[in-house]
Amino acid sequence: MLRPGPLGFGLRRRVYTERMAVEAPTTPLDAARIKLDFPILMREVNGMLPAYLDSAASSQKPRQVIDAIVDVYETSYAAVHRAVYTLGERATERYEAARDTVTAFLNAASRREVIFVRNATEGLNLVAYAYGLKFLGPGDVIVSTEMEHHSNLVPWQEVARRTGAELRYVRLTDRGELDTESLEELAGADVKLVAATHVSNSLGTVNDVAAIARWAHDHGAVMVCDGAQAAPHRVVDVQALGCDFYAISGHKMCGPGMGALYGRADLLEAMDPFLTGGGQIAKVTLEGTTWNELPYKFEPGVPPLAEAVGFAAAADYVTRIGLEAIHEHEQVLTAYGWELLSAIPGVNLFGPPPPDRAGILSFTVDGVHAHDVAQILDAEGVCVRAGHHCTQPAMRHFDVVATSRASVYLYNTTDDLDRLAAGVDRVKRTFGV
Ligand code: 7TS
What are 195-223's pLDDT values in tens digits? Predict the structure, then answer.
């Protein structure tokens, strides 16, 4: 049986299951040391340090981000973009400096193209309501995919319903990849918008966003990319990808509850605001209103300063560690976790096998409900998510209602995955399957 090992990570060692021996690999990151930055991961829960494998839902926060948030409240807090006193100016400077950091993080051409939003969901809805409702109509075709998170699917259903545009889907193959043959069915369609995810949160599939953006542009369409599962884990360069919109969530990349939407400046200029009110206007009279310049046109209300500063601190943190190294680390862990789980009879893994995948291991155990798997793993200190992961169409494609899902990040070690595999062994023994 597997036992939780020491937190040390650099040594090569052998992990024994009842069935096979799997060599624990090394990775370019000293994740055991990185883990020390995350206070919550150093605190026992039910008498054990957590093996936190649910970063695809939300990541944990390092001391550096927590400190940045505390610092802004202790030294620089006031209403952003409103006050003329010194503290107010300091608050505005820190908020706009955070935008500069996120602009560089995404390699957007201009800070005018980076809009702060609550999360990726709000960013995608902003595009749906402010672009979709204005520029789409009957006869137009929106193309989305069967693997989308509901955040990049339901808004397009709403746009189609309200505008009379038609919503079509690129289907999945049984490896959980986009079926390019289903694109041929779109020949002759008047495609105006393509909405696709960079990385699937339930299958771990990585899409070729640059190719999808080229296809969209060749058809005269704009491309909206959901980057929620990509930006925390790999270098994202929106200019190189060529997408027109790109939405991310800071809370999945070591930051607080805050997100950003990248949008091409000329498109943002042409759009009307999604939400209106204070701060996003140039002039208001009783007869009408003109809009503020970009990006403020899309940011009504007093901005969330501490969240923006924490978001920027998170972008700095992962950038300092290095997104290439984080990506490589996750590739190694994912291959290791895949090997451990696939060696257990009755465990079914979803999505393409390594190395062509992100650090998301979605699986079922024959004869056991996904929630029971997650509950027994919790008793072993292993945190995984169970459910449909807000991707019901993808679940339906694979004829399951739910999977258990372990997802890795920069602070995970092979030890966390050993504990996962040991926990799944325990699940099987408990249920006698
Ligand atoms: N897009 C993808 C691909 C996601 O994985 C998620 C959240 C979202 C959009 C929405 O992000 P939010 O920050 O606006 O909520 N995914 C998950 C998940 O997999 N488990 O919980 C939330």
Answer: 999 999 999 999 999 999 999 999 999 99
